[in-house]
Description:
Order of helices and strands: HEEEHEEEEEEEEEHEEEHHEE
Shape: flat
Radius of gyration: 19 Å
Structural class: mainly beta
Number of helices: 5
Strand content: 25-35%
CATH class of the largest domain: Alpha Beta
Helix content: 10-25%
Amino acid sequence: MTTLLPSSLRALALLAVFIPPSFTDKASAKETTSVEQWDTYELTFQGSPRGNPYLDTSLTAKFSNTSTTVTVPGFYDGNGVYKVRFSPHQEGAWHFVTKSNRDALSGQKGSFLCVEPTGSNHGPVRVVNTHYLEYADGSPFYSVGTTAYQWTSVKQSIQEKTVETLAKSPFNKMRMCVFPKAYSYGNNTEPWQYAFESKNNFAKPNFEFFRNCDSPRLSDSGGACFYAATAGAFSASYCSGVL
């Protein structure tokens, strides 16, 4: 399933995080041999977290086939782990090579096969004829949405129950807040986790919180889109294209 973070979360990769320099400079990549068209191909590198990986380390991967080349930025996922995610839009053989200012992460090469999509994989959602939405394969997309602003803040048992309920409903879009939101009427309890390691320290993201946001549960339950709202405004939206 395609699961990608909205830009409001990816922007946090620019924040400073200190991790003790207890890792080596050797990087290794984990890769699969095939992925469906429009699904997610993920590269994982175990590298060094020395210094400030968010600001001191740059990482990109160039993906190429016989007709096109796409350069994708990587990101730091904590504990010395670096990742690159790519959604191939064409079937066939793809090759990649990484580029980084850290020698251990640069020059990593490999290839994979993009195969035909199956089942409910119709590709990402796009705008057509100004007023309509459709999947990449031309299938129509009809947005039927609901709101669960506190979904990322409530305890995980409630998150799971919400996803279970949505899977049995006609909704294919859910709108939520990335950061906690206080209500005059509703849930005023403390969130299960904050987005940062401490409530008022914005220099250290809480990896557990964002990995929970990055969970494929919404796509697995049948959800196609979610909108991330922060500070009372819509900061990003993402349509997974998998129903």
